[in-house]
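From the shared-data thread, chain only:
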Amino acid sequence: MRSHEWIDARSLALDRAVADKLSAEPGLLDRARRTLARWVEQRQPAVPSVLLEWHEILTGWPQERILELLTSPEKTPQRLRQSNPFCGILSPEERLAILKEYESRRA
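Structure, as tokens:
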């Protein structure tokens, strides 16, 4: 069984890779915004508060602050990481490389 710390570290590694990619290709933020809009629409009328938080972040924060959030080990980003709309930003190969690295660190 994996510890919460292991799971959190793996999620942080994935988000750091996403942040690197967003830094290189800022237009990818639009993909996350579209994903979030789809999730919000699917959950109407009872949209989870975490999705509303993400909406505020993706529509109101500058990119630099979003990147800081993605790379922060603090508790709030850690909580938000559990439902972030950045799926599809990493290629399957990029994602698999990180997952394999963490699988080798079995906790």
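The chain has one domain: 4-103.
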